[in-house]
Design goal:
Layout (H helix, E strand, L loop, with lengths): L1 H12 L6 H17 L4 H9 L10 H11 L6 H4 L2 H7 L3 H9 L3 H13 L10 H15 L4 H5 L7 H41 L5 H13 L3 E2 L2 H6 L14 E2 L3 H26 L6 H18 L8 H24 L1
Helix pairs in contact: 1-2, 6-7, 8-9, 8-11, 9-11, 11-12, 12-15, 14-15, 14-16, 15-16
């Protein structure tokens, strides 16, 4: 509730004409509530788009737009021409891993360096130190006589060689997800935003982003290559998967958007009964309506039950809770 009111006041007055103390107070309220939310829209988008928390608040929308635009940039053909990349694109994780592990270290290094040099449109790649350390360890291992003969021979029980091979595979899968999988995920979310906008079901961009977040959260998760590599013996714990991927199935998305439309209509119908004439500003009413509808969609896990009375009752309860909170804030 406070977040909607804070956003509304900033939109209504704009950044011009606000005293520093007032603007900081309003932004402070919004930030406080946002920090208390479970995986708020800003923090979640920041995570999967590689935006660090210390970036200025007012720069968030700018960075988000730039990164979304960058996600449309195609992966260089030189990267997609690598057979191992093509194999991962087709979902052949185990076969790709086997082929990569059988390569000589100089072959692995050439592939890793090609991926490391590829564009990083979302700014996710944190592999430089790991790659440098891997090269150092390879040089140390090369001092051992005959290392090239058994490095790629997985039948030889040499733990040092195996661990280095596994770390190379972990680096490869990590870079693949940074440079290929993550932009695909971001592009799918952009396309979801486009589908939401085409339906004209949200009243502002904030509501659209929040709806995008909720719908994505209820889509089936897809294991990434780096996720599989990170749990294998010999991998390092500190190099974690850069993105959580989802299966963007149009039927699932349409079902959730249909549910949201029905919920929001119910919220609009019930709003005058619950709030009466306590809110006179149409814009603030719109923002509260959107927030209540989002909360209801989350509570219903993205789907409407066959029992219409059940989900409509939930909508009424959430509205009444919001009204009670609003009254408490007003009287306080």
């Amino acid at each position: 509730m406070l977040q909607a009111m804070a956003q509304h006041q900033l939109k209504k007055h704009g950044t011009q004409g606000l005293s520093p103390s007032f603007s900081q107070k309003v932004l402070g309220q919004a930030r406080l509530l946002r920090s208390q939310q479970h995986e708020s829209i800003a923090s979640q988008l920041g995570n999967w788009l590689g935006i660090s928390e210390n970036k200025a608040e007012q720069q968030f929308d700018k960075h988000l737009s730039e990164l979304f635009a960058a996600s449309h940039q195609p992966v260089p053909e030189t990267i997609h021409s690598i057979p191992l990349i093509q194999s991962l694109d087709m979902g052949n994780y185990q076969d790709t891993r086997q082929q990569f592990m059988e390569l000589l270290p100089e072959q692995q290094l050439a592939i890793l360096q090609s991926l490391a040099r590829a564009p990083d449109p979302l700014g996710l790649d944190q592999s430089r130190d790991y790659l440098t350390q891997w090269q150092t360890d390879i040089k140390k291992l090369s001092c051992n006589s005959g290392y090239s003969d058994h490095y790629s021979d997985q039948s030889v029980p040499d733990w040092s060689a195996f661990a280095i091979r596994q770390r190379a595979w972990q680096l490869f899968s990590y870079l693949y997800d940074c440079k290929v999988s993550a932009p695909q995920e971001a592009l799918a979310r952009v396309q979801l935003s486009s589908a939401i906008n085409q339906r004209q079901m949200t009243d502002d961009d904030d509501e659209g982003l929040e709806l995008n977040r909720v719908v994505t959260a209820f889509l089936p998760e897809v294991s990434s290559a780096s996720e599989g590599a990170s749990i294998e013996l010999g991998s390092v714990d500190s190099l974690q998967p850069p993105v959580q991927r989802h299966r963007f199935n149009r039927d699932n998305i349409d079902r959730m958007l249909d549910a949201y439309s029905a919920i929001k209509k119910q919220v609009k119908d019930e709003f005058p009964r619950v709030f009466g004439h306590t809110i006179h500003d149409p814009q603030l009413q719109q923002e509260l309506t959107g927030q209540v509808a989002i909360v209801c969609l989350e509570a219903l896990k993205g789907r409407l039950s066959d029992n219409t009375e059940h989900w409509q009752s939930l909508v009424k309860n959430v509205l009444e809770e919001e009204f009670a909170e609003f009254n408490g804030l007003s009287s306080g």
